[in-house]
Design brief:
The protein is an alpha/beta fold. It has a single domain (2-163), classed as Ribose 5-phosphate Isomerase B, Chain: A. The chain is built from 6 helices and 7 strands. The chain has helices at 12-25, 44-60, 75-81, 110-116, 132-144, 151-163, and strands spanning 2-7, 29-32, 65-71, 89-92, 100-101, 107-108, 122-126. It has a 5-stranded parallel β-sheet, sandwiched between helices. A two-stranded antiparallel sheet has the order 5-6. The longest helix is centred in the N-terminal third of the chain and has 17 residues, at 44-60. It is globular.
Length: 165
């Protein structure tokens, strides 16, 4: 499985640690899409769009791949990534204060539901809100959760894709 990584200056250090973790510990192929230096004057859209464009291209070709983008809060990075067709970027910057339950009564968390229900193929992390250890555990879990394939979720994702054409 291929995982693209991108971060601005605020997520630069965490991104570099996560690349090693995903490649060396989890055994996935990774591609660093930048930033390649810690430059406080960089602009996240320039960097995040590189990873999002690659992920979008893979999605169009039916190639399963993922992206992890990192910024201060992850908000802008998620917004940028979600502008690309076929990219479904979930945002994570810490554990929710309240748990959620799906229609079957199963307790879910944001990470699992982003994969099971939304088939998220990109994950945006807020580096100023989570530790490296927490980010590693989130990515480990996120990459291991499959999309449920339930008809209602497939239908909803198709509607998203139709509206982003």
């Amino acid at each position: 499985m291929k995982v693209y990584f991108a971060a601005d200056h605020a997520g630069f250090e965490l991104k570099n640690e996560l690349i090693h973790f995903v490649r060396d510990t989890l055994g996935h192929e990774v591609e660093d899409c930048g930033a390649f230096e810690n430059n406080p004057a960089d602009d996240y859209p320039d960097i995040i769009s590189v990873a999002a464009r690659k992920l979008s291209s893979d999605a169009a070709e039916g190639i399963e791949s993922f992206a992890v983008v990192v910024g201060a809060s992850g908000q802008g990075e998620a917004m940028c990534a979600n502008r690309f067709k076929g990219v479904r970027c979930a945002l994570y910057y810490g554990k929710a204060a309240k748990s959620q339950v799906d229609i079957k009564g199963v307790e879910l968390d944001m990470i699992s539901s982003s994969r099971e229900h939304n088939n998220a193929n990109a994950l945006s992390l807020g580096a100023r809100f989570i530790s490296q250890r927490e980010a590693e555990e989130i990515i480990r879990r996120w990459l291991s959760v499959p999309f449920s394939g339930d008809e209602r979720h497939v239908r909803r994702i198709q509607k998203i894709d139709e509206r982003s054409a």
